[in-house]
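One such given next:

>
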Amino acid sequence: MIRSAIAAVFLATALPATSAFAEDWKDAAIARIPQSHPMVVDASWGQNGSLRLYVEDNGYNRDGLAETACGSLKYIEGSPPSKFVIVRVFNAGSADAEKGSEMLGYGECTL
Protein backbone atom coordinates (compact mmCIF):
# COMPACT_ATOMS: atom_id res chain seq x y z
CA MET A 1 0.00 0.00 0.00
CA ILE A 2 2.74 2.44 0.94
CA ARG A 3 4.80 1.46 -2.13
CA SER A 4 1.94 2.19 -4.51
CA ALA A 5 1.34 5.57 -2.83
CA ILE A 6 5.02 6.45 -3.15
CA ALA A 7 5.05 5.32 -6.78
CA ALA A 8 1.96 7.42 -7.54
CA VAL A 9 3.54 10.52 -5.97
CA PHE A 10 6.79 9.89 -7.85
CA LEU A 11 5.02 9.53 -11.20
CA ALA A 12 2.85 12.58 -10.60
CA THR A 13 5.86 14.76 -9.89
CA ALA A 14 8.26 13.19 -12.43
CA LEU A 15 6.13 13.33 -15.57
CA PRO A 16 5.78 17.12 -15.86
CA ALA A 17 9.49 17.57 -15.18
CA THR A 18 10.36 14.97 -17.81
CA SER A 19 8.22 16.74 -20.40
CA ALA A 20 9.77 20.11 -19.55
CA PHE A 21 13.24 18.56 -19.65
CA ALA A 22 12.53 17.15 -23.11
CA GLU A 23 11.63 20.62 -24.33
CA ASP A 24 14.83 22.00 -22.76
CA TRP A 25 16.83 19.45 -24.75
CA LYS A 26 15.12 20.47 -27.98
CA ASP A 27 15.69 24.16 -27.24
CA ALA A 28 19.36 23.47 -26.51
CA ALA A 29 19.70 21.62 -29.81
CA ILE A 30 18.18 24.54 -31.74
CA ALA A 31 20.62 26.94 -30.07
CA ARG A 32 23.69 24.70 -30.40
CA ILE A 33 23.45 23.40 -33.96
CA PRO A 34 23.98 26.81 -35.63
CA GLN A 35 26.91 27.47 -33.26
CA SER A 36 28.67 24.24 -34.17
CA HIS A 37 27.66 24.36 -37.84
CA PRO A 38 27.99 28.03 -38.93
CA MET A 39 26.46 27.41 -42.36
CA VAL A 40 23.10 26.78 -40.63
CA VAL A 41 21.16 30.06 -40.69
CA ASP A 42 18.06 28.71 -38.92
CA ALA A 43 16.82 25.53 -37.26
CA SER A 44 13.47 24.30 -36.00
CA TRP A 45 11.78 21.12 -34.81
CA GLY A 46 9.05 19.66 -36.99
CA GLN A 47 6.65 16.85 -36.32
CA ASN A 48 7.66 13.72 -34.43
CA GLY A 49 11.27 14.64 -33.77
CA SER A 50 12.15 15.91 -37.21
CA LEU A 51 14.87 18.58 -37.13
CA ARG A 52 14.79 21.13 -39.96
CA LEU A 53 18.00 23.00 -40.80
CA TYR A 54 18.13 25.93 -43.22
CA VAL A 55 21.29 26.84 -45.11
CA GLU A 56 22.25 28.98 -48.09
CA ASP A 57 22.41 26.80 -51.19
CA ASN A 58 25.94 26.47 -52.56
CA GLY A 59 25.03 23.87 -55.16
CA TYR A 60 26.22 20.88 -53.12
CA ASN A 61 24.27 18.04 -51.56
CA ARG A 62 23.96 18.51 -47.78
CA ASP A 63 23.48 14.89 -46.67
CA GLY A 64 26.83 15.10 -44.88
CA LEU A 65 25.70 18.14 -42.90
CA ALA A 66 22.48 16.34 -41.94
CA GLU A 67 24.41 13.27 -40.75
CA THR A 68 26.94 15.39 -38.83
CA ALA A 69 24.21 17.44 -37.16
CA CYS A 70 22.38 14.24 -36.28
CA GLY A 71 25.51 12.85 -34.66
CA SER A 72 26.10 16.00 -32.66
CA LEU A 73 22.62 15.76 -31.12
CA LYS A 74 23.89 12.81 -29.07
CA TYR A 75 26.18 15.15 -27.14
CA ILE A 76 23.54 17.64 -26.06
CA GLU A 77 22.76 17.28 -22.38
CA GLY A 78 19.42 15.63 -21.80
CA SER A 79 19.13 14.05 -25.23
CA PRO A 80 16.85 11.04 -24.86
CA PRO A 81 18.62 7.72 -25.43
CA SER A 82 17.34 5.58 -28.30
CA LYS A 83 15.36 8.50 -29.77
CA PHE A 84 15.01 8.29 -33.55
CA VAL A 85 15.62 11.66 -35.25
CA ILE A 86 15.34 12.71 -38.87
CA VAL A 87 17.35 15.74 -39.99
CA ARG A 88 16.37 17.54 -43.16
CA VAL A 89 18.42 20.37 -44.65
CA PHE A 90 16.55 22.98 -46.68
CA ASN A 91 17.53 25.89 -48.89
CA ALA A 92 16.92 29.01 -46.79
CA GLY A 93 16.58 31.06 -49.97
CA SER A 94 13.70 29.00 -51.30
CA ALA A 95 11.50 29.14 -48.21
CA ASP A 96 7.97 29.64 -49.49
CA ALA A 97 4.89 29.09 -47.35
CA GLU A 98 2.85 27.72 -50.26
CA LYS A 99 5.44 25.66 -52.15
CA GLY A 100 7.67 24.67 -49.24
CA SER A 101 11.45 24.69 -49.32
CA GLU A 102 13.89 22.87 -51.54
CA MET A 103 15.44 19.97 -49.61
CA LEU A 104 19.23 19.80 -49.96
CA GLY A 105 20.10 17.02 -47.52
CA TYR A 106 18.73 14.23 -45.36
CA GLY A 107 19.99 12.16 -42.44
CA GLU A 108 18.67 9.78 -39.81
CA CYS A 109 20.06 8.68 -36.47
CA THR A 110 19.19 7.03 -33.21
CA LEU A 111 20.55 8.87 -30.21
Observations:
- Residues 1-18 have pLDDT under 50 and may be disordered.
- Helices lie at 2-36, 63-73.
- The first strand starts at residue 40 and ends at 45.
